[in-house]
Every structure is written in C-alpha cells, then in structure tokens.
Design goal:
three-stranded antiparallel sheet; single chain; Metal Binding Protein, Guanine Nucleotide Exchange Factor, Chain A; six-stranded antiparallel sheet; about 20% helix; globular; alpha+beta; about 170 residues
C-alpha cells in the first residue's frame, strides 16, 4: 500500500467518524411533502420540529442508536408521528430488538407507507408516515412472530401517548 492510498483510506475513515460525531446521516432523496394529506412548508416544518426531528422526518436522517428515551419506554400507549400526530404503532407490538432503536412488529392499519431506499450501498425498505410522509425508519424481515417484521424507528420521529389509567 502506498502512502497516498493509506492517506486516502485514513481520510475516508476520519470523514465517517466525523459524520457519526455529527449524529445524523442524511439521505438526499427524502419524501416530498406535497404527496401527502398533511403538508407544511419547509420553514413551517423547521419551526414545528426540533432540529433532530426535522433532520429525520424531513431529510431521512438517522438518529444515533440508543439515544432515544423511547427505546426504554414500556408503558401501554400509542406511538404517533412527531410531525403530524397520526397514531402509528401500539405499544402491544413493541419489542426489544437489541438494535438501539424503538422496534415494532406491526404498524397500526393504514398508518405507514413504504418505499425503496437504495442509500448506503444497499437496498432497504423505508417507512414513512402515511399522513405527512415523514421518514420514520426502515422495516426488516428479521422480527418476531407473528409478522416476522422489525419496524426499526427513529425515536425523534415518534411521540408517545400513554394510555390513560382510567381506560380512555
């Protein structure tokens, strides 16, 4: 290996580490908000969401593993889109995937849509909110029964609504 190729490899590794330090990897071809029932301008999204939620929901970034408090949320309730508050997942479908992101084996009916994601040199199935098109995460076929699916979601893309102790 020449000194030049060694420096090139070192620069690539340093760039990857810097991107991780920045906490978010952004996908360039994020969902277009005009395709969905709930739409806001880019400026309205920026005002409504935290910088982290904006990066994930509107630009398909990924939050760092084990950074979301929702990873350790175990109460009964519903997980909703942080962008438009559409109910997406029931706590009854949440499971510990060991990946560092909140994971579910099934969404609520008509809550999500999927698309093909060819970023990061692989093909994955991207999951979007069906109302606002916000990027939520990805779905994989290595989940538990009964579906065998793992909806691996970004915690900043979700809001948790605990079930009332009064049953309503």
């Amino acid at each position: 290996m020449t000194r030049r190729s060694l420096l090139g490899v070192g620069a690539a590794v340093a760039a990857a580490l810097l991107a991780e330090k920045m906490r978010f990897f952004v996908k360039a071809d994020a969902a277009q908000p005009t395709q969905y029932a709930y739409t806001l301008t880019d400026e309205q999204w920026r005002q409504k969401l935290s910088p982290e939620a904006y990066a994930v929901l509107r630009h398909a970034a990924t939050e760092p593993a084990w950074s979301s408090p929702l990873e350790n949320e175990h109460r009964a309730g519903t997980y909703a889109c942080a962008g438009c508050d559409l109910s997406l997942f029931s706590s009854t479908t949440k499971f510990d995937s060991g990946t560092g992101w909140p994971s579910f084996w099934a969404p609520l009916p008509n809550a999500v849509k999927t698309s093909v994601d060819n970023s990061w040199f692989e093909t994955r199935t991207e999951v979007h909110c069906s109302r606002c098109g916000g990027h939520l995460g990805h779905v994989f076929d290595d989940g538990p029964k009964p579906t065998g699916l793992r909806y691996c979601m970004n915690g900043v893309a979700l809001d948790f609504h605990p079930k009332s102790s009064q049953g309503s």
